[in-house]
């Protein structure tokens, strides 16, 4: 089993990199992608925990925004972790998350929702990259909602009145940076309509021109029709077809290895 998209507590997952590697080994997986949001801080612990036949596809899930304001996530895999320009881009993207979180909280408080930055920080693991899942966890802790899934289907959906975008590279800029750093660029769940606005088929041309390598087709947030369309697009554009769990540990339904990438891909 090859699962190229997972998260640890270095961003918005609940497992440490060591715990995630151990789970992958216990499941007999062959390759696991460590792709925390806008950071490579989990790489070292994952490498130190590696043993047996498991291989790592180290990377990051980079938060991007199109010129039209559509949120896109770009998986960068196998790039040079010491590449200065790449690390600068990741740092700048992380820095944009704090003012975004403050604005979302202000919007919620304006309609009477009892939530604060302190609540979010209490739900944020030490050293983790701040993100909407931590706001979701804080809302769960306060009894406003029941689960992360409920949050992302409603209050924290991209089309919600509380949603706020943040400073981020365009998908094309992210792809070019990944490729310049020696990596492989795979767009994550591009047709996940349950999350809000999505790309259209015509949007892929500029991504391919920038150097896109693959499309994450098999993902639980894309229905069978969406997967079929993406598979056709990937085949037409000669792009790698991947599948992955987008595992986050406890608090989300995604199971490690629930979708995979075939070895030939």
How are the SSEs placed, and which strands pair?
Blueprint (H helix, E strand, L loop, with lengths): L1 E5 L10 H10 L4 E4 L8 H7 L5 E11 L5 E7 L6 H12 L1 H14 L6 H6 L9 H10 L6 H6 L17 H10 L3 E5 L15 H7 L3 E5 L5 H13 L3 E4 L22
Helix pairs in contact: 1-2, 8-9
In short:
By secondary structure, the protein is an alpha/beta fold. 36% of the residues lie in helices and 15% in strands.
Detailed description of the structure:
The protein is built from ten helices and seven strands. It is an alpha/beta fold. It has two domains: 2-95 and 167-243, Metal-dependent hydrolases (TIM Barrel, Alpha-Beta Barrel), CATH 3.20.20; 97-153, DNA polymerase, domain 1. Strands 1-2-3-4-5-6-7 form a seven-stranded mixed beta sheet. Helix 2 links the parallel strand 2 and strand 3. It is globular.
Descriptors for this entry?
TIM Barrel, 2 domains, 265 residues, 15% strand, 36% helix, 7-stranded mixed beta sheet, alpha/beta, DNA polymerase, domain 1
Q: Main beta sheet: strand number and arrangement?
A: 7 strands, mixed
Query: How many strands in all?
Result: 7
Give the ordered list of helices and strands: EHEHEEHHHHHHEHEHE
CATH architecture of the largest domain: Alpha-Beta Barrel
Under CATH at level 1, the class of the largest domain stands as: Alpha Beta
CATH superfamily of the largest domain: Metal-dependent hydrolases
Please give the order of strands in the largest beta sheet. 1-2-3-4-5-6-7
Helix content: 25-40%
Shape descriptor reads globular
**How much of the sequence is in beta strands?**
15-25%
Our count of domains comes out at: 2
What would the average pLDDT be, to the nearest integer?
A: 93
């Amino acid at each position: 089993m090859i699962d190229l998209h997972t998260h640890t507590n270095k961003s918005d997952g609940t497992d440490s990199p060591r715990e995630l590697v151990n789970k992958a080994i216990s499941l007999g997986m062959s390759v696991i992608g460590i792709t925390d949001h806008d950071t490579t801080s989990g790489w070292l612990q994952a490498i130190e925990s590696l043993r047996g036949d498991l291989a790592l596809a180290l990377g990051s899930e980079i938060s991007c925004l199109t010129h039209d304001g559509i949120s896109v996530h770009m998986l960068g895999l196998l790039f040079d972790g010491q590449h200065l320009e790449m690390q600068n881009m990741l740092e700048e993207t992380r820095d944009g998350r704090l003012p975004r979180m403050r604005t979302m909280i202000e919007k919620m408080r304006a309609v009477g929702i009892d939530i604060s930055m302190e609540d979010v920080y209490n739900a944020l693991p030490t050293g983790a990259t701040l993100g909407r899942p931590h706001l979701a966890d804080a809302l769960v802790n306060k009894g406003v909602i029941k689960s992360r899934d409920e949050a992302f289907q409603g209050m924290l959906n991209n089309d919600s009145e509380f949603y706020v975008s943040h400073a981020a590279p365009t998908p094309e800029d992210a792809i070019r940076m990944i490729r310049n750093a020696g990596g492989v660029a795979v767009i994550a769940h591009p047709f996940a309509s349950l999350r809000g606005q999505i790309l259209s088929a015509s949007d892929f041309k500029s991504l391919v021109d920038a150097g896109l390598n693959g499309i994450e087709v098999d993902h639980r947030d894309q229905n069978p029709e969406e997967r079929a369309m993406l598979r056709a697009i990937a085949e037409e554009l000669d792009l790698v077809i991947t599948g992955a769990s987008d595992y986050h540990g406890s608090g989300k339904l995604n199971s490690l290895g629930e979708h995979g990438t075939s070895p030939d891909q």
